[in-house]
Amino acid sequence: MNASVMSEVIASILILIGTALSLLSAFGLIRLPDLYTRSHAATKSATLGVLCVLLGTFFYFWLAEGFLSIRLLLGIFFVFLTAPVAGHLICRAAYRSKVELTKETVQDDLKEVLEKGEKGRA
Amino acid sequence: MKTNNVLLHTLSRVVTLIILIFSVYLFFAGHNNPGGGFIGGLMTASALMLMYLTFDFSKIKKALPINFTSFIAAGLLFAIGTGFASTLFGFPYLTQFFDYYQLPILGEVELTTALPFDLGVYLVVVGIALTIILTIAEDDK
């Protein structure tokens, strides 16, 4: 197997995995009941999907054309760093503006803590 | 309600550094690759905006006591200055010169007079973007 075939195989497998994960995360956005479970689907699998697509692109240009793209590596690092924090911020803002949890919820520990904090301030 | 978001504060310190470095890269890459003064200036402005969003407005004002309106004037002076520098040697206004130099670490580098002009664009873009956003942000006082 020569280098160009290998690069195409590696890149296509990674890109296909990334696309499948992004599709799964889109299904999760439609199917899951409330904002918190949806953000669970959207941040994790979409981040991994984007990372796989970027990694596939990186490997393709590295093996097929000998071009080591630092920008793609930096993009992988950047998305890996920021996407979960964006999900965290959206969930936090939603919880503090009292978006309701789904009916199947069993336990909500943060509620007690927040109420205690508000009482302590008042 | 006063909140304490440690995750956002820690992350934005790291991310601001990456965005600032990438904006400088875009600024210098503009001659032969996609990039340039405009997009580099917008990236720098967005990095500073991230700091303004994460931390308090007054805190950043204390840490960066810069009047961004003066950036606009400095950038315009750079652009006009590079234009008039060529007229001093008898060439038409805004004539471009370039040459190749051997620099100590970087090796052979092409230096052009388009770079100071691009620096002017960069400064004007940073100044205007931050002036617009900060003026709107300060409006409630």
Outline the structure in words.
The complex is a heterodimer of chains A (122) and B (141). Chain A is built from four helices and no strands. Chain A is mainly α. The N and C termini of chain A lie far apart (72 Å). The model of chain A has no long low-confidence stretch (mean pLDDT 89). Chain B is mainly α and 141 residues long. Helix content of chain B is 66%, strand content 9%. Chain B has a two-stranded antiparallel ribbon. The mean pLDDT of chain B is 86. The A-B interface holds A 74, 77-78, 81-82, 85, 88-89, 92, 96, 118 and B 1, 3, 5, 7-8, 11, 14-15, 18, 22.
Summarize the structure.
Chain A is mostly helical. Chain A has helices at residues 3-31, 35-65, 70-96, 109-121.
The chain-level mean pLDDT of chain A equals 89
The percent range for strand residues of chain B is 5-15%
Terminal residue distance of chain A: 72 Å
Strand count of chain B: 2
N-to-C SSE series of chain B? HHHHEEH
| Head-to-tail CA distance between termini of chain B | 19 Å
Low-confidence stretches of chain A: none
Alpha-beta classification of chain A: mainly alpha
What is the overall pLDDT average of chain B? 86
- The count of β-strands of chain A is 0
Provide the structure class of chain B. Answer: mainly alpha
Percentage of residues assigned to helices of chain B: 55-70%
Shape of chain A: elongated
Oligomer: heterodimer
Helix content range of the residues of chain A, please? over 70%
Radius of gyration of chain A: 20 Å
Shape of chain B: globular
The main β sheet of chain A shows up as: none
